[in-house]
Amino acid sequence: MKIIVSPDYQHQKEWIQQVPHLFAAGGGELLYKGRNQVRLFMVGGEKLVVKRYKRNDVIKSLIYTFFRKSKARRSYDNAVALRLRGFQTPREVACIEQTRMGFVTQVFYICAYTEKQPVRPRLIEQEPFDKPLAIAYARYVASLHEAGVLHCDLNPTNVLVDSDSHFELIDINRMKFYDGPVPKAECMENLTLFYWLTPAYRFILDEYARQRGWTSDDIAEAIRVKERHDKRWILRKKITHFGRYEVLH
Q1: Least crowded by CB within 10 Å, which of 10, 87, 172, 210?
Q2: Is the peptide bond preceding residue 128 cis, with omega within 30 degrees of 0?
């Protein structure tokens, strides 16, 4: 088992070593259960969140052992990189890689707990959407892209905010960092991940464009990129559902 512990959390090292066992025993408070599982632990007066990623199959074990960093290690490294660029994410605590016969099989990422909440309820579920937050969100994403930060899963559940419009990013294992601003084409694709082509999306796009100095032609192109993205997504879901129907029948 390989463990990397933040210098700020060396005092929790003994507990961190027990995390795989604690998780297997169902310890802590379950926050999310799906492909991955997230649990909250109170450790010496500190709230720590542990994300256990889905166990690797043979191919992924091979990839994450020899060719790519594990998702937990990428989350840890990306948290450090984000903070160096002036952006917030729950403080990284540790990453754990369990191995079997030298191959990475199960990984865990540990970070500090945050009280911030996803932007989704206020920007998507609420009617009408929260325009001041939408403006702040657009400016925040523009600042990420301007600083060369690309969150490859920039959906509204992975951007957290507090009442003062201070943002944090979570689920950060898939990110890209550029030496300069993110290329415009990648920015347009990244913006498509927010939600459907709703009034809130258009409002956010307009404010983002103002911040980046985009032209009306740029905005029109971003809309076309969004429309193509949504059509592909719908088609992919239809194919997936059809395949499931065929298997079940």
Answers
A1: 10
A2: yes
